[in-house]
Each structure stands twice: as structure tokens, then as C-alpha cells.
Amino acid sequence: MSTKRQTYRVQVAGLERDLRMFEVAPGVRIAVLNILGDTEFVQACALALTDRLSLIQFDVIVTAEAKSIPLAHAISLEMKKPYVVLRKVYKPYMGVALSAETLSITTAEPQMLFLDEKDQDLLRGKQVVLLDDVISTGSTLHGMRLLMEKAGAVVVKEAGVFTEGDRAKWEHIISLGHLPVFTGE
Description:
Rossmann fold, four-stranded antiparallel β-sheet
């Protein structure tokens, strides 16, 4: 059974999408971007972000599991640069993984990020761009930065489809738009 939800319309990379609204805390709602399965949207955003990232000197794209993985893949193909996915669950095949804790606005519970042992050599001494779908509280970026520091990589830029919340806090982020946080009602 589907629930009729209020939506928030966005225009980005030449496309329109209606993002479903969800309450993430009492009296606080956000418009949720879920790009998984939306190939047209992912590709349009990848092209737009590739254009903005083309002036940045970097070696590797780094993203966190899961919704931004197709975006990282598409940008990787466009820019001919490798990408690394920081996982949220440790698996034995990851070997001696590095880890950092984050707190996402959409989960409200602390989460871990893990850097697979195989990816540590790829990142050591490299310049990286951190990529996320929506940058809201900055906690995921903080965890990603911690892992890059542990891996010996240098973060040269951070990017996302949208920033969210306090716009002034995210002026340094390369993004395609900004989402408000809705309070009240």
C-alpha cells in the first residue's frame, strides 16, 4: 500500500523531479533525493558535475555507500578516473580496513564507514574529490575526510548533487542546487 506524500519539486541538470518529503525529527522534514534507478537523472547530474570538476586537479573520486555510487560511477566514466566506495558494513574480504563513524540526517543512528584494504594503496598520496548525493549535516563528509587522512590521501574538493540546510555552511561545495530543511507544520 502506497502512502500519498507531499513532494518538493526540484530542477537540476535540465531535469525536474518531485522529491518525497519525510519527517526526520519532530517538526523537521526534508525532501529526500534517491537517485538509485533513475539513470536519466544520474547521467545528467554526472555530466553537470563533470563540467564543474574539470577545473580541479585530482586523482580519485571517493563516495560513501550507497545512493551516490551510480553517480560516482558515471563521473568516473566521464572523467576517466577511478572511484572508491566507502562501505557501511565491514566484510571479511575487506581485510585490514580503516574505519570512521558518521551520523546521517536520514538514519539518525551512528554509522560506520570502512575503507577496504585493497583501496588504501590506490588512495595513499593521491588527491581526491569526496562525492555525496546530498550534503546536509556534514557528518558523512567528516567521516570521509577522517578516512582519507588515515589513508594518506589529500581531499582537494567536495561535491554533491545538492547541499541542504544552511546554505552559507556549504559555499565551498561544488553542487548543482540547494535543498531547504522544512520546519513547523
